[in-house]
Write a structure and sequence with these properties.
single chain, mainly beta, 12% helix, 45% strand, globular
Length: 137
């Protein structure tokens, strides 16, 4: 079941392990698996981020507060130079993208992506290729 959320409200993710589950480079999609302690791994919840422009942080973390970054935080990230956007296009870019921040006491995971987030429940996502399927060269 997919549910698209237009504006992600701040949420507290307690007793939960968050794992970057997969990245599809050809679609710029990043999936974060939220595994709540005491729940079955067979009824997973994922957050699907689309048009991912930036990611920073570890690949796995425990518990967090998830919020939308402010316009100022997003501008600071854009000003760091990782992407070049003409001044005339900044407002349109910020209207279409959000900075999502998973905050922990000592660090933060930041994802700059399209503003819509897919919440995927009870569907197991599979990524990658097994070593036996890879071409040996």
């Amino acid at each position: 079941m997919d549910l698209i959320v237009k504006q992600l409200e701040p949420i507290q993710i307690e007793n939960c392990e968050c794992v970057v589950w997969g990245y599809r480079a050809n679609h710029s999609q990043l999936y974060v698996w939220l595994h709540h302690q005491g729940t079955s791994i067979f009824s997973p919840t994922y957050l699907g981020f689309q048009s991912v422009e930036f990611f920073s942080g570890p690949m796995k973390w425990s518990g967090a507060s998830l919020r939308n970054g402010s316009r100022e935080e997003c501008m600071k990230l854009l000003d760091s130079g990782f992407i070049s956007i003409p001044d005339s296009a900044v407002d349109a870019y910020l209207d279409a993208h959000r900075l999502f921040i998973f905050e922990m006491p000592s660090y933060a995971v930041r994802i700059l992506a399209a503003k819509d987030v897919a919440v995927i429940r009870n569907k197991r996502l599979r990524f990658g290729i097994s070593l036996s399927q890879q071409d040996s060269k």
